[in-house]
Design goal:
Layout (H helix, E strand, L loop, with lengths): L5 E5 L16 H12 L4 E3 L28 H6 L5 H5 L11 H22 L2 H13 L1 H16 L10 H4 L3 H10 L1 H27 L3 E6 L8 H5 L14 E5 L9 E6 L3 H6 L3 H13 L2 E4 L7 E6 L9 E4 L3 H11 L4 E3 L7 H9 L4 E4 L21 E4 L8 H7 L2 H11 L6 H11 L4 E5 H4 L24 H5 L3 H10 L22
Parallel strand pairs: 1-2, 1-12, 2-3, 3-6, 6-9, 10-11, 11-12
Antiparallel strand pairs: 4-5, 4-7, 7-8
Helix pairs in contact: 5-6, 6-9, 12-13
Length: about 525
Amino acid sequence: MNFARSFGTLVHPTSLPSDYGMGDLGPGAYRFIDFLEETHQGVWQILPLGPTGFGNSPYASYSAFAGNPYLLSPDLLLNKGLLDEADLVYHRVPQSARVDYDSAYKIKDDLLKKACRRFFEKNDRSEKERFIAFKKKNRYWLDDYVLFMACLVDNNRRPWNLWDEELARREEAAITSVSERLSSEIDYQYWLQFEFFEQWMQLRDYANKKHIRIIGDIPIFVDHNSADVWANKDYFEVDDTGNRLLVAGVPPDYFSETGQLWGNPLYRWKALKSTGYRWWIDRFRQMFHMFDAIRVDHFRGFDAYWEVKADAKTAQIGRWVKGPGENLFTAIEKELGRLPIIAEDLGVITKSVVALRDRFGFPGMKVLQFAFDDPGNGFLPHNYVTDNCIVYSGTHDNDTTLGWYAQAPEHEKHYLREYTCSDGTDVNWQLIRLGMLSAANQAIFPLQDFMSLDTEHRMNLPGTTAGNWEWRFTDQMLGKVDKDHIRRLAKISNRNVRDIRGDSNMSDIQAEEP
């Protein structure tokens, strides 16, 4: 599926400016969208928006359907009358270039609980009607999620396979008992999701009205400690009490000599197929209710995935297993129609992965930081055989371009300088220019590259657990970006979103009640 020619920025909402320790969906997000409009951009790409667990990774979420309540903006709750200025004044902290998750969570927990109490005390009829409608429309995932979160809090966030065995097995008596005992926490979790989707959909509408499309991200695998696995054990490689049997990862590659052991339970694809892939269809419907397009992370896993025993220490020993492939996407397309999906097709990609991607017209990814080892490298712009692709300088898993260049092998640096007819100065802008002038329909760049930032501002280092997902920017940093230069590149590359209207390929797929 071809996307309209455009360009945009990759940055996650946690990285946005705010007064509460981490980015959120409030004023800083609206100012960032204004920045995109001012620089003639048409795309904002983000990472997964789900509620995060250990390590704060957006790729390790308690739910494949829910939103992260810590992204809720206290300022917007103030505007709704659910908080007072006096509630906020002692919780505001100075903007910084790092997320302090511990402090931010404490701040948000206090404010969100106050706002929730006022929501139920306020008894606003129209808002209560929206709340009830939200619960009804989303009950196919929401009821299990709020119960899971209430139980998780009650168990000090221990993984669900360590809860009482009757609850881990979801025995009826245990579910009834805990639902009654934790009813207050369950109501709180319902409200958090209601407010999240209220704030998110308003923000998305604001972006769309400015002709800016939001690209979301859907991880292929879900976290073991999630409502998804707890409520749907038959679909995952776990035993009756939830212990993992087979887990996901990737074999050794250029990111890691021992591979990456992700630990997510693998799917039982035969069980999913027997339902017509209903869980996956619901998941994609939810994503296209939230976003204008989605990037499917680890796309090759739908063709074949790396299977590792749950007790393995690394991902070195495993085997390739055939995935659902064409059957899954045919089922999704039959129910939801042709969808604007981007295939994350990085790493060692086989002919069958390419065939699956091309069978459905999904654009793949071209990462310029991987391009300069050989003139025949497929990531170099002169080797693009189709415009149906997305070019990036780097992704959230890469170093910033300045950081990458500083550590790149000398022969790659030399080739880059020859290729760009430059001396290596402002190499981030050289890669941005290459991407903008390429044939790729879309060009997307991490905000750090527009800001000329070094390794210190990297978002994630695969294979590590400390210090990731913490990068933020301040309003002052955004104000220093060379907007005129971005607008000039947009003009000469024919990517000015103000001249591109009516992109039907990125239309919203409205969620329906299953």
